[in-house]
Amino acid sequence: MGIAALGYAHFPIAPLTIFVLNIRKKTIVPRGSIICLILALLTIPNKFQGQDIYLEDFNLPTGTTVDNGATAWSIDMSNANPGNLGFFETRSLAGGLLFMGHNVVGEAVWTSQVIDISSVTSVIVSIDLGEFGTLEGNDYIRAYYIQDGGSETLFANFNNDFGAALQTVTSPTLSGTSLQIIVRISNNSIFEAHFFDNVRVFDSSTSGATLYSRRSRNWTNRNAWSTVGLGGPSCNCQPDATTNVIIGSNHQIRLNRNGSARDLTVQGNGRLYASSNQSVLTITGDVVQSSSNSDPIDLLQQTLSFSGTGDQNIGFNGESVDQIVVNKSGGRVILTQPLNLIGEISIQSATNFESNGYLTLLSTSDGTSGNASIGAIANGGSVSGNVTVQRFINGEGEIWRYISSPVTNASVADWQDDFPITGGFSDPSTGPGIDSSRPSLYAYGESGSGTNLSLGWQAYPVSGTAASNPLTPGTGYTALMLGGSSATLVDVTGPINQGNMNYNVSFAASGWNLLGNPYPATVDWGQTSGWSSSNVADAIYVRNNENGNENSTVASYVDGVGTNGGTGLIATGQAFWVQAIGPGPTLQINELAKSASTGTFFRKPDLENLFRITLSIDNEVD
User: Mapped to the 3 state alphabet, what secondary structure does 60-109 carry?
Assistant: First the structure.
């Protein structure tokens, strides 16, 4: 089926530039996937139970730019100058209709009529927002309301890429005599578009009920819920952001589309699970999981969005979750039970995510998938409490691995309980075939290298216990994986490294410094807004050893050009080389260096070396 057959013939996509964003990974995928995306964009149901006072669902001819009917609205293009094939109008997608701004170049404004709300006690505004393309920080979609003829009040603001699936945003509870809704859009490329749908004002005084499951059904099935009690009569309704949801024993509710709830409780042998499509479940309250089911909340490949205005207590009792989005106007997200993450946590607001020692980032591969991460944390946001970060290392024999710690208070003992570490400290590893006195972990001291680069290697630790010797954030280490024929799962636990971090870079001898990725996420050397430096070469190098260590290559990324597999992406727990090129070198990293893509944790080489700083111990050569 072509684009034209979908009713989207006028969208400016040339034959060589047909693209669509993968919702989870935000990467370009083949045009055959565009049908799946379009269907996903149109699956948000009418979520709220309250009586509608105003509802604009854009069920109008494609190309409409003004409506003088019962839900009147208009547009203002005085500060916009649409570029190539740009528009700001209604559009039809796969039989559904919405309002879209594409390549508007400037700011285009949609404004509703003045809406009379004097007949009700309180109202809430809700709008479904979405985007696709590759958007930057100066691209946005913003929603405002004007209450009783006052000034505009912002209640939703999305910059950059925020996900191709429609997201429902809501205003605070409002009261008065009149209301007006405004949506402002700015983008400036034929590959950028924002859109919105279901602009709604509803009577919030009739919402806020507790909905109980009646039987095993889809989340959006209006016969699945009762306001009376578990198994009670149908309310002919469905959950929304103001309703508490209780899933009872032996009831299995399937999240078939995007959904929302205030408090979510799963009881007895109940279960909430998802179909294969990627859906978003928005929670504005707490999650309470008291089910005896072995998999009571099964939302793999789905996104959990926390958007409440107050503290939210989240209990998952050891469940695994894929994607978590935190975008709140107030309060904290507080974990009260263990939670295993297999995808990414995205903290998009000034919110503290309190782990309380319950969060584990899983790792199942040293390739470009299977590694959980904490994405770029918004200004004012944070993650507090201990987090366990795993690093899967494939079994490749006794080779040197270049590693670092993504948490603040880890020690050598945290690695030693996962793989043997030996040397001249007081409690080296022991066992069959292990020479406990022979150092197997090293750091690199640039100042001691002189003209012989190999002299910079420093055994670590050399005294004290493993637990008393810290793994310094931002420092790179090399470890000999003794007996490393089997895969190793390395983990460290502590507060994560976050925010701006300064590297300890020196220029006393060779200038070569072995550093480490400090974050529990892949970072991108090519993301210039994420790094600042002086007298440091625009290049990174990662040693990539093969079995036996006699041969190795260096994956490099120099002035934006990769060699031997170098891409500029530095995986979680990866150490890398930089070279200082002048006195007083500085290097700083910040949250914007984090990448949505996953870097390879380098291991086996297959190409010729670029440079060699050798570490030779008996017959083991790095």
Answer: CCCCCCCECCCCCEEEEEEEECCCCCCEEEEEEECCEEEEEEECCCEEEE
